[in-house]
């Protein structure tokens, strides 16, 4: 636990106490450097009995059976929550709405992709047109240095209106 949270005298006889230091902090205790934690009170040895391999295998078996049981209970609870009889949840309607919204999302995404492609095509076409127009302007200027481009553009725009 964090340093100083409880005192050594508050710890029961059968337990030990280890103080954990804040991250990156080091401290000297009884002339030794503590890197992250230090033992305030050692836990006593409660018994000398060791587990046999058979006992260890049994404990693992019980642990994994318990985990499987918990997972099965969790799945059963989720299954019950999704049925209409237990909680009056309109599961079929919700599923249909979800599927409809997913279809709409995909259609909208495809539409956006098509719009992006169209916009990219127009941008490339306009860039090409701009280069062609600039080439014509330079050629016109070369042939007739007095040519007024602004007056010419205004005249063309008036015709389109």
Question: Which SSEs are present, and which pair or pack?
Answer:
Elements: E1 17-20, E2 26-29, E3 32-35, E4 37-41, H1 53-81, H2 84-87, H3 91-143, H4 149-160
Antiparallel strand pairs: 1-4, 2-3
Strand order of the largest sheet: 1-4
Instruction: Tell me the structural class.
Output: mainly alpha
The structural domain count equals 3
What's the count of strands? 4
Portion in strands: 5-15%
Question: What is the overall shape?
Answer: elongated
Low-pLDDT segments, ≥5 res: none
**Mean pLDDT value:** 78
What is Rg? 40 Å
Give the assembly state of these chains: single chain
Largest sheet: 2 strands, antiparallel
Question: Terminal Cα separation, in Å?
Answer: 83 Å
3D architecture notes:
The protein is mainly α and 161 residues long. The chain folds into 3 domains: 8-41, no CATH class; 53-117; 126-160. 61% of the residues lie in helices and 11% in strands. It contains 4 helices and 4 strands. A two-stranded antiparallel ribbon has the order 1-4. Strands 2-3 form a two-stranded antiparallel ribbon. The longest helix is centred in the C-terminal third of the chain and has 53 residues, at 91-143. The termini are far apart. The mean pLDDT is 78.
Summarize the structure.
With 161 residues, this protein is mainly alpha-helical. It folds into three domains: 34 residues, no CATH class; 65 residues; 35 residues.
Name some characteristics of this structure.
161 residues, mainly alpha, 3 domains, two-stranded antiparallel sheet, 61% helix, 11% strand
